[in-house]
UniProtKB/TrEMBL annotation:
Residues 13-187 form the NAD(P)-binding domain. Transmembrane segments: none annotated. PANTHER family: PRESTALK A DIFFERENTIATION PROTEIN A, PTHR43162. It comes from Streptomyces tropicalis. This is NAD(P)H-binding protein. Signal peptide: none annotated. SUPFAM superfamilies: NAD(P)-binding Rossmann-fold domains (SSF51735). Pfam families: NAD_binding_10 (PF13460). It comes from the Bacteria. InterPro entries: Ergot_Alk_Oxidoreductase, NAD(P)-bd_dom, NAD(P)-bd_dom_sf.
Length: 292
């Protein structure tokens, strides 16, 4: 089959942590890719083979040029909820398949059952998509390994102690590259319509143990010190919404004392084992010393 016979895939969130890697995965598979960006100058950050469109989820009509002639969409919702229904309506009018990056809000593990405004939004979008009859796949990453860059890299770069709440909380960090590979596979291969996949890394690790793993990758010990939830709230003021901070603290608190939820979905879909957090840390060691 020639590439011209393969319908284009539109990637929203194209310059984000997951979307950018989805683009590479699709190109490697010979799939024509379209990218949706907020600003035209972002085209310079994407591969030359990608057809770039400027559009905004908050202005649904701006999506039409990117959707015309596309076969599938990787939907990453990065906007307020008000336009979700209009966006989904436009997707249904133009494409056949949608892969939605959601969250594990249906997962029966205490870590994922805390009040979470993003999970409420994801559930609403899932209902909107289901009502259209689109061929749909839902992927639900757990804790992303790359979150540790935002959380702990500043202290590590400065040679300071990593201070964090609920160090005993266990999660199963999943590599962004594995999430992207699953998304790409479900976008261009048959057999995944109707699929609903919770994606995790292969092992349960406390947050303190994850810091130790990063230290191993850097070749030196990183000291870890427990921070109280109240101190975390104070230090997070102005950098993260209070609802998000409360959600994280509740989730970590609920995860203390029990293993993280671990699935085999990445291996089931890709045929290869998911990357461990140790692999991720080794591959991103320089980001903890020099920045990304």
């Amino acid at each position: 089959m020639n590439q011209t016979d393969i319908p284009s895939v539109l990637v929203t969130g194209a310059t984000g942590r997951i979307g950018r890697v989805v683009i590479d995965q699709l190109l490697d598979a010979g799939v024509p890719v379209r990218a949706l960006t907020h600003r035209s100058e972002m085209a310079a950050t994407l591969p030359a083979k990608v057809e770039v469109f400027t559009g905004d989820l908050t202005v649904p009509e701006t999506l039409d040029p990117a959707l015309n002639g596309a076969g599938a969409v990787f939907l990453v919702w990065t906007a307020p909820p008000q336009t979700a229904a209009a966006v989904v309506e436009r997707l249904a009018a133009h494409v056949r398949r949608v892969v939605f990056l959601s969250s594990p809000h249906q997962t029966p593990h205490p870590f994922f059952q805390q009040p979470n405004p993003m999970a409420v939004l994801h559930a609403d979008i899932e209902r909107l998509i289901a009502a259209t009859g689109l061929e749909t796949t839902i992927i639900r990453p757990g804790m992303l390994a790359s979150n540790s860059l935002a959380w702990w890299a500043p202290a590590i770069r400065a040679g300071e102690v990593v201070r964090w709440p609920h160090g005993a909380a266990e999660t199963a960090p999943v590599d962004d590259r594995d999430i992207a590979a699953v998304a790409a596979r479900t976008l261009y291969q048959d057999g995944y319509v109707g699929g609903d996949y919770v994606l995790t890394g292969p092992e349960s690790l406390t947050q303190a143990a994850q810091v130790d793993v990063i230290g191993d990758a850097l070749g030196h010990r990183i000291a870890f010190e427990e921070m109280t939830p109240d101190e975390f709230r104070r230090l997070s003021e102005g950098t993260a919404p209070g609802l998000v901070v409360d959600m994280l603290l509740a989730a970590w608190s609920a995860a203390v004392g029990q293993p993280a939820y671990v699935t085999t979905a990445v291996a089931d879909i890709l045929g290869t084992a998911p990357r461990t957090f140790r692999q991720w840390a080794a591959d991103h060691a320089t980001a903890f010393t020099e920045g990304s």
